[in-house]
Design brief:
By secondary structure, this protein is an alpha+beta fold. The chain has three helices and four strands. The protein has helices spanning about 1-10, 30-40, 70-75; strands spanning about 15-25, 45-50, 55-60, 80-95. A four-stranded antiparallel sheet has the order 2-3-1-4. The radius of gyration is 14 Å and the shape is globular.
Length: about 100
């Protein structure tokens, strides 16, 4: 319940910055295609690569009305997902431009 309250509070907070997260998602190998499709339907999610043994490389960005952290907490609820591990997170002030 603490995580749920934290996510709800963060979701409601004004955001002067944007988040991007790198996530490694472990899935049941036979369900990789279905899980990848479900992930891409989530706001701000992009699937970049996958392996035959059920690992997907994913990024999550803040999307309109959806904080990246909230989206991250939804990933383990997808059928076929074994685990989701946050491996990278960066915050960019909305006035900044990313460096190439």
């Amino acid at each position: 319940m603490r995580l749920k309250r934290f996510v709800e509070a963060e979701q409601a907070a004004p955001r002067p910055e944007e988040n991007i997260c790198g996530v490694l998602v472990h899935v049941v190998p036979e369900k990789s295609t279905e899980v990848a499709a479900a992930l891409t339907r989530l706001p701000g999610v992009e699937v970049h690569a996958g392996t035959e043994n059920g690992r997907l490389v994913v990024t999550i960005e803040d999307a309109d009305g959806e904080w990246a952290g909230a989206t991250l907490t939804r990933i383990p609820t997808i059928d076929g997902v074994i685990a989701a591990a946050l491996v990278y997170q960066s915050t960019l002030t909305k006035t900044e431009e990313p460096t190439p």
